[in-house]
Write a structure and sequence with these properties.
alpha/beta, TIM Barrel
Length: 284
């Protein structure tokens, strides 16, 4: 098992100002970080890659699309430009040494029509992601698609929909990244959803119901850790937590003592329950 920390906890400005944070992440015991790709200029990431290498931290990447990059837009020009945008994110992932580019980029965050996805939108999403998977595959990078809850996305907003989507893409470089925050909202049983996804899961984000410290909320951690064991999953386990530093998350209150406290407590909670599963160790 490998443990990671998502850098979105510090907002969306990812540059050398975070180098002391990377050092702390390494000192706590994490094996790597999730780097959000908002800047799609590959040149931006060479210095960041060197710092990761110097620290011995591995890296996987995430990206999202907003209203200007909507892969299922009715406008074919936007679909084309979005695909080019996502290919640049893949290029940045290569610079960073990542093997996975993850996120809900099969459609745009916060863009709604007031209706369920149409058959055309579904097809545009499938076709676009399949082409992106072809491109990523040439660089030995795997896509990790994510579903978001109904308030953030409408193309896929539950496990069954994302399973269907990935199966229809039908590409070896297109897998699932599973996020417990959205599952906590949308699934009847999180563990059963994970078991249904099976080996489609290539990465797991552990996130509390309020996006603060894992183990200090009401997520069904026993069911999640049980599913991880049942699946014999031994890949990346990452903490994804947000704060007011990420305005798009709409979090305007302090939910933890400090980023360091969140990381230390979250890391201890996850590692203890992965390596010593009985009984479940709940955070205080």
């Amino acid at each position: 098992m490998k443990y990671s920390m998502n850098l979105l906890l510090w907002g969306n400005q990812i540059d050398d100002n975070l180098f002391p944070t990377l050092e702390l992440i390494k000192e706590i015991g994490f094996d790597g970080v999730e780097v959000p790709i908002f800047n799609t200029d590959p040149e931006h990431w060479f210095k960041f890659r060197k710092k990761l290498d110097d620290l011995g931290l591995a890296c996987e990447t995430d990206t999202i699309c907003g209203p200007d990059n909507h892969l299922i837009s009715q406008d074919p020009k936007m679909r084309k430009s979005t695909l080019e945008h996502l290919k640049r994110a893949v290029d940045c992932s290569l610079v960073l040494g990542a093997t996975k580019l993850m996120g809900p980029y099969h459609s745009a965050l916060g863009v709604f029509t007031g209706q369920p996805a149409t058959s055309d939108e579904w097809k545009w999403g499938i076709d676009g992601i399949r082409e992106l998977a072809d491109y990523a595959g040439e660089l030995d990078i795997t896509l990790g698609l994510e579903y978001l809850n109904r308030f953030e996305l409408y193309l896929t907003s539950c496990g069954d929909e994302l399973i269907r989507f990935v199966d229809e893409v039908n590409h070896p470089n297109c897998k699932i990244m599973f996020d417990t925050f959205h599952a906590n909202i949308e699934e009847k049983n999180i563990g059963d959803t994970m078991r249904k996804m099976g080996d489609r899961i290539s990465f797991i984000q552990l996130s509390e119901n309020d996006r603060s410290t894992p183990g200090k909320g009401n997520v069904d951690w026993e069911g999640i850790f049980g599913a991880i064991r049942d699946l014999k999953y031994d890949g990346w386990i990452s903490i994804e937590a947000f704060s007011p530093k990420l305005p798009v998350a709409n979090i305007w209150r302090k939910m933890f003592e400090s980023e360091e406290q969140l990381m230390r407590d979250g890391f201890s909670f996850i590692k203890s329950n992965i390596e010593n599963p009985q009984p479940l160790i709940i955070g205080q």
